[in-house]
Amino acid sequence: MATQADIMRVEGLTMAHGGRVIQQGLDFAVRRGEILAIMGGSGCGKSTLLRHMIGLQTPAAGRILLEGADLNDADERVRRRLRRRLGVMFQAGALWSSMSVGENLMFAQRESLRDDDGRLRRPLDEAELALQARFRLALVGLDGSFERLPAELSGGMRKRAAIARALCADAPLLFLDEPSAGLDPLASARLDALILQLRAALGMTVVMVTHELDSLFAVADRALFLDARQRTMTALDNPYPLREHGPDEVRAFLRRDRSDFR
Ligand SMILES: Nc1ncnc2c1ncn2[C@@H]1O[C@H](COP(=O)(O)OP(=O)(O)OP(=O)(O)O)[C@@H](O)[C@H]1O
What we know:
This protein has helices at 46-53, 76-83, 101-112, 126-139, 155-167, 185-202, 213-219, 239-245, 248-254, and strands at 6-17, 20-31, 35-39, 61-66, 69-70, 86-89, 173-177, 205-209, 222-227, 232-237. It is an alpha/beta fold. It has a domain at 96-158. The strands form 2 sheets. The chain has a 6-stranded mixed β-sheet, with helices on both faces. A 4-stranded antiparallel β-sheet has the order 2-1-4-5, covered by helices on one side. Strand 9 (222-227) and strand 10 form a beta hairpin. Helix 6 (185-202) packs parallel to helix 7. The protein binds adenosine-5'-triphosphate. Adenosine-5'-triphosphate binds at residues 17-18, 22, 40, 42-48. It holds the Pfam family ABC_tran. This is ATP-binding cassette domain-containing protein.
């Protein structure tokens, strides 16, 4: 049953690559304001699910509803409008290397101001764009980094800048693909704190793919587990009860007993 509390619904989703089914029978909702983690062993389909949830890949079967509307609607204009409701930080968190951090954000803001036909919705005031970019950088703790090139930032700072860029869409739903990958434990903990702050300050809903158990227990309201062998979801709940009472392989995963989980 869809409710107002659900911002997204995944219904009967089958995902396939070139005819090979990766996952099937996925049925779940993303609740407004929650932090939902997508978990599971390597290659089970986490990134593929994320790509479906942002409309970059089309379901082999089933559908994905964003605020009640089908993300794969036949009408391209509808799809574009829906995708503007999503902010995304991809795994590499790549920023355009030739632009300063501030210009990266301003570029993303310009794109977010286009209408369903790709035209700018209103004339742009560069000073206002720069101000907004500075505001978003301050929000992620990068106040002094507007003029710097991405190569001049640390890995953790680049992730923060990529999150700030994802916020430029002013979207209520933010997707993060392995935000802590490659970060040291301290930078990773700072990023967790930032995700919690964004939810508190902006009321965002966050869906994140992660391998990091520390991160999962620190930020996630619920964890969705995909299983590579069964090719479907095996659990969806708060990580703490899942660690105690979840299916065997999920408990093993959450207790770091990797031997029992592929
Ligand atoms: N473009 C593609 N074409 C064909 N198969 C693909 C493609 N992308 C992914 N796959 C396959 O789909 C399956 C799921 O891949 P996916 O990257 O979604 O897994 P994952 O859970 O995110 O993995 P990891 O944790 O290692 O990043 C894998 O078997 C992978 O080989």
